[in-house]
Amino acid sequence: MSPVIEEHARARLITDGPLTRPVPVELRYDATEDPRTVHITLPGGTDWAFGRDLLERGLRTPIERGAVRVWPCGRTQLIVELHSTDGVEVFQFEIRTLIRFLARTRAQAPATATPSDGTPEKRPSRSTPAATRPERGAPATRG
Fold first, then answer.
1. Measured at the alpha carbon of residue 61, what is the angle toward residues 55 and 62, in degrees to the nearest 5?
2. Burial letters for 59-92: b for 16+ Cβ neighbours within 10 Å, e otherwise?
3. How many angstroms separate the CA atoms of 104 and 100, rounded?
4. What pLDDT tens digit does each residue of the chain (143 aa) get?
5. d(C-alpha 50, C-alpha 126), whole Å
6. How far is CA 71 from the centre of its chain?
7. pTM for the complete prediction?
């Protein structure tokens, strides 16, 4: 079984206006890169990396870590709010999509990579496409 899990998903981009719009996103997990980290790649190639446990906890209760806020919205939706120097982006996900993805990551994760092993949790980071910025993986800042 490959250590990389990639899942194409749809999210809804929440805007200030009355309408939301569906956008394609990619969920990615690579146990060999960091077994505690998941990635969400947004349209345009912006990649957000943060602790897998942040999504897991956000399915049940509101949680904030650094530039990322996650909370359940009713029984079937999850909101992910991403803060950067460019502003704030808010996405609404189907919970079942994230539950399926997270279950696949847990099955792939090494047994020593659980949050209870005493290792520090992964801090959120944001990177943009390599063509538009000089360094990959720069930490996110609030905007």
1. 80
2. beeebebbbbbbbeeeeeebbbebbbeeeebbbb
3. 6
4. 567 999 999 999 998 878 888 999 999 999 999 999 999 999 889 999 999 999 999 999 999 999 999 999 999 999 999 999 988 999 999 999 999 999 999 988 776 444 443 434 444 566 654 433 333 344 444 34
5. 9
6. 12
7. 0.74
Considering only CA atoms, give the Rg of the chain: 15
Return d(Cα 72, Cα 43) in angstroms, integer. Answer: 23
What tokens does 99 get? 């539950």
User: Given the structure tokens 């939301």, which residue do they identify?
Assistant: 20
Instruction: Return the beta strands (E) in the chain as ranges.
Output: 4-14, 21-30, 37-41, 47-51, 63-65, 68-73, 77-84, 87-94, 125-127
Q: Which position has the token pair 């943060």?
A: 50
